[in-house]
Specification:
By secondary structure, this protein is an alpha/beta fold. The chain is built from 10 helices and 5 strands; from the N terminus they run ααααααβββαβαβαα. The chain folds into 4 domains: 11-59; 62-119; 130-211, 2-Layer Sandwich (Nucleotidyltransferase, domain 5); 215-289. The protein has helices spanning 11-23, 30-37, 42-59, 62-84, 89-98, 106-119, 168-180, 194-203, 213-247, 251-289, and strands spanning 130-141, 144-151, 157-162, 183-190, 208-211.
Amino acid sequence: MQFIRRPDLDPHTRIHIVRLAWLHQGVYGKMTEIANAYRISRTFLYQLLLMANLQLETLFSDEKLLFQKDHYRLDQLLFLLRLEGKCSLLSIASILKALEYHPHSVGYLSQCFHRAGQTLPSTLVIPSKKWVFYLSDEIFAIHAPILVTIDARSTTILNIALASDRSADTWSAHFEALEEHQFFSLGMASDRGLGLVAGYQAACDMALWVTDYFHEFRDLFAVLHQLERKAYAAIGKEDDAAQKFARAKSESNLQKRLQQYETAYHTCEQAMALYDQLAMLLHLLHEALQLCSPHADCAPDKTFARN
């Protein structure tokens, strides 16, 4: 007799065959009838029964319950190492290997955490309506934007989702999802991102929007660094003009070099004054708004002075 694999017998069909065989055990001629009906051998039918018995014994045995308990503890250990211990996948794999847990490969751990992440909703769900003040921004993972909105008071992540872009439509859908989950906005603080601001205004047109201090001061400090470079460049040009004036010999050349020096001097004075004024303003704002902790001074303490 030639045996062939039967791809048409899917798992549901095989379960049905086993159930029929199970119910008619000991009935004369019934096994042959079932085998003929499904065009299978009696040997294969008894193999299905044997495998079914083994699976049921394993399922209801004490060893199975111990395995499930150990598996739960392993999952608990994995999440503690990843979330509380801040361990990398490679470090977790090394720890599991030392504890003789199997499997412990990096690929298995990656799939495990991916499956766990897939089961979690991206938007927090609450039973009743809640008014909150949003803090929203984008973060990036391998150049892909992740849109994040948190509650300003509790810093709870209300919605976090990987997005294809940062357009106004994408942000608007992000905020509409929050309203569908019973979150309503009192206002929002964010940077001046065009898509973010336009999307928020489209979804929450009556709510308040304010720019956050961090991004505003980051831009101001960028301007401050530009003024600093310009001031140093102006000091260099003034010094160069002074040296050229000192080397001049003829009356006409002395007058020419003197005019060049006076121009460089006034330009340098103006550049240093602009830097000092902005630096002082940022220092006063830093103290008034308490942008950083006492151990992290954000304002520069540099002032320009000639030697």
